[in-house]
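Deliverable D5.2: sample structural annotation.
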Amino acid sequence: MSDNKTGKTVRKWAGLVAALCFATGVQAEIRIGSTVSATGFASYLGEPEAQTLKMLVDDINAKGGVLGKQLKLFAYDDAGDANKARTFATRLVEDDEVVAIIGGTTTGATMAIMPTVQEEGIPFVSLAGAIEVIQPVRSHTFKTPHTDRMACAKIFEDMKKRDLLKVGLISGSDSFGASMRKQCLDIVGDYGITVVGDEVFGPTDADMTPQLTNLRNKNGVQTILSLGLGSGPAIITRNYAQLGIDLPLYQSHGVASDAYIKLAGKKEAEGVRLPGTPLLVAELLAEDDPQREVALRYKKQYENMAGKPVSTFGGYAHDALYLVVNAIERAGKAEPAAIRDALENTKDLAGTTGTYNMSAEDHLGLDLSAFRMLEIRDGNWKLIE
């Protein structure tokens, strides 16, 4: 018998034993897995995700757990490396025997995890932004962040309102930047907006003044849109100020955190607009806003624990964990197939990112109304009405 067949046989018997234990009340814990980019180039995304998952699991367990059982979190740091993410996903399934996985901080890591969860039948809630994560729909993959296509739409709506109809693009060459660029180019014409310049930057580039100079010199350019993750967008913002470019600057939802403002500089980031989640402006939300209560509660809990401002990306992890917990509670059992089915039927679950309504055709369950257009003013986030 091949090693592959042997492994599958062992896992099959392990699954039968686990099911028997559950049925007889022997199982004492519910195993949840995670692999996020707690270190590496995407650590400003992954670190708050890792901290959030641990904090919330501890809190849930202190309150009695789920279905009367304690959650056990098996957490790994893939440092944004797709190969590591794939390896950890396999380990979570084969060695740790988890019933669900949360993670994939970056699009690349998520795409590496997806084949494993699909083959093994384990529900997976991704924390990455690209639309490719959920289109086409894969039966076992879900996600919490808005898609890059939705972010493009939100940005272009705002540009159109301001009569900014000629835009220069500067995109990261990584999977997130490339995907969002593709989505923005696909729908920009729907808003009567023309792309007059299209530049790219690499993940290790330390100076984007050549690309920005090219865009500034394009005939009729009225605004510039930066699409990227990591330090690149902050460098662009600083270079923008150094060049004295007097045009509105937009960034993507990939930098919706205080870490971006800190990296870019309070003065340099003044006036930058981007789409973000209700979490960043929780105190400014209307009293009857369905996200207000959950966002304020998580914000207070996270900031008390971490001693630093709440992060949009930690909010994605918050929503992912509660999607899984809610699914387990509704299913009445912590079995992968039942969790998957319950996730797909999630209705009216308010999170920090939006209110989730999933279906067999939609494994995100958010619409454009969940996005808020934000502007940085005096180092803080302001809600643009």
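Annotation notes: The chain has two domains: 3-146+295-367, 148-276. The longest strand covers residues 29-36.
The annotation will be released with the project's public dataset once the embargo ends.
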